[in-house]
């Protein structure tokens, strides 16, 4: 306790001196009073904070601080966020993460996931927050749309995706691009060089989706590995919009056009330039084809189909709508597939016994298919016979088509197992329109967000059993046959009315590519290369996947 200074005044002899001293003493008294008040306030604050945190001692999920909620903990764990969530969700199937202006609920409970994605689907749209974060990139495209706008796009796109024309066209595109990739890899092996597999896979899927989506060959997958401004801008935009989810200052940065938001602005300009030029090119080609009566020359790509739809008087599609549609498909089809393929290759590297089983299945398949087609397989005169080797790769690729690829169950299971542990969309947030109670009793409030977490779900023992964290394609088989599981348990493609529209197309490309890669190559990680995910909407590798390669016959 601090004593009051006034008790010393009685000892002072002269009034003048007294006044002088007492004025000085008054100041000191004030300072000490202030100090004592300050100490009291700090004391109260510290006690309050202590009680605030103490009351959360039994809480499962991140502990919060007043005003900022769990934002600090989430920011501190940002680079590791998926595993940070695994640590909480393994203790509780649902965790609450209060944030400054909103409230996040993360769940790995299949019953909750079914409720959100299907049973009470209308209550869980993408939501305003998601829309605000992503609009700059996705616009009004299917990924970012809700309600009627989503329903219309979904209907049209589902119809297009079901078309045999598009499937046949995609098969050819995927085969050509996988073959191109194989020849680049073969050359890398020949010269004993290293290669960033994620980079080449991103190039391959970008080329493919641009061909399937816009009908245009952009040629980023080539031996010269050309820089592509669209691809770099696209990656940057993806990273920055993901950062918005946890950066409370993003709106200010956007307003001031500084930092990450300035970078985003620049990237969007590059993306738009590229996309609008594609749209104009395709429109001109279609106009010319129609004017010369050569409708059959109109390509079966997605953009052409939507440009044609635009001519329907009922359709109100503007250039901006077309831009949003195609960009959404690029986002949907490019990074997801390339990221999955990268994790697949990594799984083959660290699980060589699985790579051997995949290889054995492919060799058997090759022999069977060659017999069926009545073709003699090229004889390769040893690993030095580069020409013969490349010819054999090409010949093998011709044996692959939509139907024959369906006869590789172990390969299919290996891709699926990769997606279980490394889902391309690791967490998927939904808005909340009205207060609701999830099946496990968690109350969710209007305006917050509920996120199902495929990355965590794939690792939960309460879903997959004690070996949940192991990479084991065999888990997908029962009595020798592949067993599909509930999409509310294996959530890599989402589930319910908004289930991924490109699932079959993605599997087609992944099977085509991995069949060629695993049949003819072994991959080895460059020593010391770190493999770690990067925090963005898609689960890609932060440092790429540097490998050396050996050929196998
Ligand atoms: C391994 C590859 C893929 C994975 C793991 C995957 C996963 C997903 C997921 C999780 C969603 C829901 C996203 C959300 O709620 O925002 C989704 C939606 C979607 N995907 Fe895929 N996807 C893949 C490949 C593709 C491909 C190749 C295409 C088409 C070219 C595609 C087209 C779509 C579309 C159009 C939607 C939006 C559906 C809607 O909102 O109604 N996806 N995908």
Automatic annotation (TrEMBL):
Pfam families: p450. Its cofactor is heme. InterPro entries: Cyt_P450, Cyt_P450_E_grp-I, Cyt_P450_sf. Heme binds at residue 500. It is found in: Membrane. It is a single-pass membrane protein. Keywords: Heme, Iron, Membrane, Metal-binding, Oxidoreductase, Taxol biosynthesis, Transmembrane, Transmembrane helix. Pathway: Alkaloid biosynthesis; taxol biosynthesis. Its main location: membrane. It comes from the Eukaryota. The chain crosses the membrane at residues 32-52. GO terms for cellular component: membrane. One of its GO terms (molecular function) is oxidoreductase activity, acting on paired donors, with incorporation or reduction of molecular oxygen, reduced iron-sulfur protein as one donor, and incorporation of one atom of oxygen. GO terms for biological process: paclitaxel biosynthetic process. Gene3D superfamilies: Cytochrome P450 (1.10.630.10). Belongs to the cytochrome P450 family. This is Cytochrome P450. It comes from Taxus chinensis. The lineage of its organism: Eukaryota, Viridiplantae, Streptophyta, Embryophyta, Tracheophyta.
């Amino acid at each position: 306790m601090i004593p009051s200074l006034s008790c010393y005044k009685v000892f002072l002899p002269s009034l003048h001196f007294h006044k002088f001293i007492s004025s000085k003493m008054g100041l000191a008294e004030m300072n000490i009073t202030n100090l004592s008040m300050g100490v009291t306030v700090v004391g109260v604050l510290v006690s309050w904070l202590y009680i605030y945190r103490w009351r959360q001692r039994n809480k499962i999920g991140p502990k919060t601080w007043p005003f900022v909620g769990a934002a600090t903990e989430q920011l501190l764990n940002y680079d590791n966020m998926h595993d940070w969530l695994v640590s909480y969700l393994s203790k509780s199937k649902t965790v609450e993460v209060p944030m400054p202006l909103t409230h996040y609920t993360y769940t790995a409970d299949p019953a909750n996931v079914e409720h959100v994605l299907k049973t009470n689907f209308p209550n869980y749209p993408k939501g305003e927050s998601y829309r605000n974060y992503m609009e700059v990139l996705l616009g009004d495209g299917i990924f970012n749309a809700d309600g009627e706008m989503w329903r219309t796009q979904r209907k049209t796109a589902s119809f297009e995706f079901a078309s045999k024309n598009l499937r046949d066209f995609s098969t050819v595109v995927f085969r050509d691009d996988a073959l191109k990739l194989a020849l680049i890899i073969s050359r890398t092996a020949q010269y004993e060089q290293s290669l960033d597999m994620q980079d080449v896979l991103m190039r391959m899927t970008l080329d493919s989706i641009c061909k399937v989506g816009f009908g245009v060959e952009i040629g980023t997958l080539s031996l010269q590995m050309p820089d592509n401004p669209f691809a770099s801008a696209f990656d940057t935009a993806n990273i920055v919009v993901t950062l918005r989810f946890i950066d409370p200052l993003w709106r200010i940065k956007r307003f001031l056009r500084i930092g990450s938001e300035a970078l985003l602005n620049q990237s969007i300009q590059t993306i738009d330039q590229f996309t609008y030029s594609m749209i104009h090119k395709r429109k001109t080609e279609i106009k010319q084809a129609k004017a010369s009566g050569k409708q059959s020359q109109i390509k079966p790509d997605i953009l052409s189909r939507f440009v044609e739809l635009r001519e329907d008087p009922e359709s109100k599609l503007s250039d901006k709508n077309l831009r949003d549609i195609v960009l959404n498909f690029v986002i949907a089809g490019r990074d997801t597939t390339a990221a999955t393929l990268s994790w697949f290759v990594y799984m083959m590297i660290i699980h060589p016994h699985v790579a051997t089983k995949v290889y054995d299945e492919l060799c058997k398949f090759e022999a069977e298919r060659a017999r069926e087609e009545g073709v003699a397989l090229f004889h390769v005169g040893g690993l030095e016979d580069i020409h013969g080797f490349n010819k054999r790769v090409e010949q093998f690729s011709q044996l692959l088509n939509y139907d024959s690829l369906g006869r590789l169950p172990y390969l299919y299971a290996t891709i699926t197992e990769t997606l279980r542990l490394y889902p391309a969309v690791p967490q998927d947030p939904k808005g909340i329109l009205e207060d609701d109670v999830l099946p496990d009793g968690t109350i969710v409030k209007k305006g917050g967000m509920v996120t199902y977490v495929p990355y965590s779900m794939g690792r939960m023992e309460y879903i997959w059993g004690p070996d949940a964290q192991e990479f084991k394609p065999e888990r997908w088989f029962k009595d020798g046959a592949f067993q599909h599981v509930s999409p509310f348990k294996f959530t890599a493609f989402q589930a319910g009315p908004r289930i991924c529209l490109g699932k079959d197309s993605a599997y087609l490309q992944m099977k085509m590519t991995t069949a060629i890669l695993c049949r003819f190559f072994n991959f080895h990680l460059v020593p010391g290369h770190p493999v770690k995910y990067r925090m963005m909407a898609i689960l890609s590798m932060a440092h790429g996947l540097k490998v050396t390669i050996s050929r196998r016959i």
